[in-house]
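Chain A, query sequence.
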Amino acid sequence: MSIQLFKSLWGMEHLSYRESIEQIAAAGYDGVESTLPAPEHTNEFMELLQEHQLGFIALIGSSGATVSAHEEVFAAGIERAAAFRPLLAISHSARDCWSFEDQFSFFRSALRAEQAAGVRVGHETHRHRAMYTPWNTAKLLQELPDLRITADFSHWCCVCETLLEDQGDALRIAFERTIHIHARVGYAQGPQVPHPAAPEYAPELQRHELWWSSILAQREKQGFTSTTVTPEFGPPGYMHTLPFTRQPVSDLWDTCLWMGERMRAKFK
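Chain A, predicted structure.
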């Protein structure tokens, strides 16, 4: 099983597309994960990816005041994403506060839109969204066999206020349905540790790596030879900051690079 490392543009917004993509390529990443560029930047973005031989993972989502509005926004997003020929798409989908029936209706519609667009979608296990807990995600996956996820279990640690010790059954089906990994380490009180190399967070790192190993084992069992991974640590707001100064406690670029290199070394 080989690891394809992608770098998110989250936290690199202060750079131009050229600056950020050149930096990502020089660091040895295999691709870029990003929201879709504005129409006026589309050609430049695509040309830079081609110039540096980088893959692309598209970030989309759903929004609106009603279920039907979310369905329409998602369908439009995946249709536009298809024009970029992404390796896959990641979606922040539906809402946590909806009834299960409304969530089921949304994902049934989303699967039809994915099939029409011809793009695989991993719906992210994300707070605020329908897949905000392991048990709700498991129920959706059981009801919709074609549904796939992007595994970001750091959110579940925060929501459940644990390292998911009692969620074995839900985790097992999540492992089976994962097509992309967001390799960010969370803990019981938040979705991002200050730095995954810090010894005080060794138990959290070990637990996340156990989950990622289980995903890769499932992928290999299913016949896949590679898996895409994004070491998706976030900038201040997600990253801890010092009181009064708002200075980040870690360097975002170095944190993501450390996590990516560890993934490659551990799971090569």
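The chain has nine helices and eight strands. The CA atoms of residues 79 and 117 lie 6 Å apart.
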